[in-house]
Amino acid sequence: MEYTEGLAKEVLVILFRAFPGQFVLIGGGALHWIFHSPRLSVDLDLKPLPPPAKELTKQLAGILNRELASWSIARGTAIECLSDPSGQAVRLLADGRPVLHVELAALAPVNGREKHLLQSDSFQSEIIVTPDIHQLLFSKAAALLKRSQVKGRDVFDIWFLQSRGAILDKTAFADWLKWEELDSEDLQKT
To answer: What's the rounded Cα separation, in Å, for the pair 94 and 81?
Structure first.
């Protein structure tokens, strides 16, 4: 697990440095790396601020392969980053086994409002942009409603955010529900 945590921090620093102002870190990764949730996520969800460029996942994989080369040599392992354009994601493999997943997320509308300094194990650091805790709660509640099955991690994340003082903007959430065309019958099915 420590290996994955170090790799995740390196990936965040590399991507936010290579694509300044183009992503917001959301989801469980934001909760763990920035807001110190005890739940480790092996997914890094990045919401592109402008619409994603064509073949962006190929660009991400190429930069990660190049920039992680020395990191992986120092640890005696082979890191390979593979673009998965159909899933809008990059899969990271260590010695052929999956260890991390970077996804371009298209969840509920969030934007970056907070900037946080993250230092990686290689002593490089970068500013990581996240929504505030209230927007993270909004996106977690939206994700929970859009899933076909309830996931315990979403419930934990909602509890964690509320324990940190996050408040759901009920009016904005009701408006989002209307745009998503989710009504009480749809919600009862989920």
So the answer is: 9
